[in-house]
Design goal:
Strand order of the largest sheet: 3-2-1-4-5-6-7-8
Structural class: alpha/beta
Distance between the termini: 43 Å
Oligomer: single chain
């Protein structure tokens, strides 16, 4: 078992993602609750955070305390980033690591509002982080170190898995794992609708669809086999699965999913450029 870290985590923002991260860190015995401090102007956000992480220090305006943490996590909306950085820029410790989970806010933009030489890591998490099954991509800033990468990987392990990529690929991460859950939810919805159309109750159809997707995904991860190989094992020539796959091919299913990821990636690029 890893020894619990003695670092202090400061959270600018106490919304759902910040709460999930803090809760995960405590649950995984990575950082104790009393070493976590959060700042958020929303009464509702602070209340939910307090219930999830009862030992943490939470206040509406404790930005100077957050800035003095060893790791400062910017968990604010992209449009709030400028103000949030301005409020801590002069107070943040020179040895502090700043981690941003705001979509579309580049390392260059973050660095421009912070003291020269500040170590920065930009993270793109996804919604399943809320239940500890997230997939995150992260990119190191100019002054961030290998040790910073290892620390961020450890911290994000509290809410799933994390992969280091060059910043230019974070848009692809956004298109795939960031937007991907919505595409999967659409697939689950469609599977359930098909089952209901053939007589299953909507409730049963939805549960079976969700569990089918979860089980199929887990099989890919556990076996390490290519999805195409696993698909071929299910689809006997002339069988029921093959009949369904024919319809998916005829309706352009494969191309539609690939293009959905690419469209989401392109939009991420556009949003990043407009936020500069």
């Amino acid at each position: 078992m890893l020894a619990m870290l003695s670092i202090k985590i400061g959270l600018m923002g106490a919304g759902r993602m910040a709460t999930a991260l803090a809760q995960g860190l405590v649950r995984a015995n990575i950082v104790p609750g009393e070493r976590i401090i959060a700042c958020d102007p929303s009464d509702d956000a602070r209340g939910a955070f307090a219930l999830a992480v009862p030992d943490a220090v939470i206040a509406a305006d404790n930005r100077s305390d957050v800035a003095l943490a060893d790791v400062v996590v910017m968990a604010v909306k992209p449009q709030q980033m400028g103000e949030a950085l301005g409020s801590i820029g002069s107070a943040i410790g020179c040895d502090a690591l700043l981690v941003s989970i705001a979509a579309g806010v580049t390392l260059e933009r973050l660095a421009a509002s912070l003291p020269a030489g500040q170590r920065i890591v930009r993270v793109m998490p996804n919604m399943p982080c809320l239940i500890g099954r997230g997939v995150s991509g992260f990119a190191l800033g100019k002054h961030a170190t290998k040790s910073d990468a290892e620390l961020v990987t450890l911290l994000l392990s509290a809410v799933g898995v994390a992969f280091e990529v060059p910043e230019k690929l974070l848009d692809a991460v956004t298109g795939l794992s960031g937007s991907g859950p919505a595409f999967v939810y659409s697939m689950i919805e469609c599977l359930a609708s098909g089952g209901a159309a053939e007589g299953l109750s909507p409730e049963l159809a939805l549960e079976m669809a969700a569990r089918t997707v979860a089980g199929a995904a887990e099989l890919v991860l556990q076996t390490g086999e290519a999805p195409a190989m696993l698909r071929d094992r299910v689809a006997s020539p002339g069988g029921t699965t093959e009949a369904g796959l024919v319809v998916l091919r005829e309706r352009g299913f494969n191309d539609a999913v690939v293009e959905a990821v690419r469209a989401a990636t392109r939009r991420s690029v556009e949003l990043g450029q407009s936020s500069k």
